[in-house]
Structures are given as C-alpha cells and as structure tokens.
Amino acid sequence: MVQQRAEREDPRPMVDATLRRKPDANLPTTVVAVAPVVAVAPMSLEEWGALPEDDDGELVDGRLVEEEGADPVHELLVSSLSATICAWVKPRSGFVFGSGVKYGLTPELGRKPDLSVFLPGRPPPPRYGICVSPADIFVEILSPTPEDVRRDRIQKFEEYASFGVSFYWIIDPEARTLEVFALEERGLYRRALGAASGVIKVPFCDGLRIDLDVVWADADRLGTG
After folding, report:
1. Is 21 within a domain?
2. I want to staple 203 with a disulfide (CB 3.0 to 4.6 A). Which of 63, 192, 199, 211 is the partner?
3. Residue 4 domain-assigned?
4. What is the extent of the structural domain holding 124?
5. Does residue 134 sit within a domain?
6. Secondary structure (DSSP) of the chain
7. pTM of the model as a whole
8. pLDDT digits (tens, 9 = 90+) for 171-188
C-alpha cells in the first residue's frame, strides 16, 4: 500500500494490531465490555454462516453474541452513506454491501460491519456464504451505548486491522463526526481524515465526496423521542 500523509494528525497513539496476537504480560490490561452471549454452545464459522437471517448476531470467541440495536438514526445514516458510495463505486465496477454480509476474520470470529465496500480492481466477493477475504472499506455507525462504542473503537479497530481491511470508517451520530483510518504497512491504523461538516473529499477514493451537512440535516428531520 502506498502511504500518504494524513490530512490531520491524530493526537492519540496508533493502535498496534499485533498486540492482540502477541499479548505481553508487562502491558496494562484493558477491560472491555462485550455483548451478551446468545449461544452458550461453541459454534464454528461455517455454522454461523449457515444461520437463518432471523438469527442475528456476530461470532466472538466461537460464541454467538448479540449485535448492537439499530435505531432510526443509525439506519438513516447507513442508507444515506450507502446511496452516496454506491453512486460513486458502481460505475467503477465496485461493490457496496449492507450489514447482512458476514465476514470470517478468524475461525472463531465473525463480524457484520454496517457497510462494506470493494473498490475497483479487486476480485469480487463470493456470491454466497461467508467472505473470508477483507473488503477494502468497513464502515461502522456508532450506537450511543458505551459498550457499543468500546466495541467499535477498540475491539473492531484491532480486529479489522488484523484482518487486513485497508480503510476503517467510524461515523459518530452524537458527535457528528466522520473519521477515516488507513491501514499502513506495519498493520497499524492511522487516522487519515477527521471531519464534522462540509463537503468531504474522501481520502484514497478519488472523486468520492460526502456532504456531511446534508447527512446531519437528514438526521435532524427525525423526531426527538
């Protein structure tokens, strides 16, 4: 991958995805809340992939766990971003998928990002079953609960880097921010973009622009309850 200079430096330290694979007893332990377990019995990646659509959940440590709840603002942002990205990538022979597509990150870990994007020039994903190769872009829309925020910003941040996802986008509806993280050669994510308003030129996606003011205005039309 060709490294490019970030448009805005991130004051936070980079997360080294290798720490997850090679724990060091001298490192401080971080306690991360996890989603409730749905299935107590161990489940293989293939069994998870064969579950019917009504059995929602992700596979974590070989167990089926609940996904975060999707409220109207979450789904509105997913549909808005999907339409914008699809209008850009489809004429270029790329693909955009919603949260129903399953990715097998490891034999015991399966995730379903809110959006995934295969950029032009990449081999297409399979017609059926689990994707065991990473998409170019994974997108997650943060839900307001602390557990979901920790999962997307800590757990998935490391998991997606280890899986080899080139770009990880995090959209925070509460803070009204879009962050784009790019995977570097050492398996590290570095923030390439942090924005809250205006028309954004998405890094590494030539010609893709997102009008954040329009995105947030759509969300403002929802009720306050």
Report:
1. yes
2. 192
3. no
4. 15-220
5. yes
6. ------SS--SSPPEETHHHHS--TTSPP-----PPBS--S---HHHHHTS-TTS--EEETTEEEPPPP--HHHHHHHHHHHHHHHHHHGGGT-EEE-TT--EEEETTEEE--SEEEEPTTSPPPPSSS-B-S--SEEEEEPPSSHHHHHIIIIIHHHHHHHHT-SEEEEEETTTTEEEEEEE-TTSEEEEEEEESSSEEE-TTSTT-EEEHHHHHHHHHTS---
7. 0.81
8. 999 999 999 999 998 899
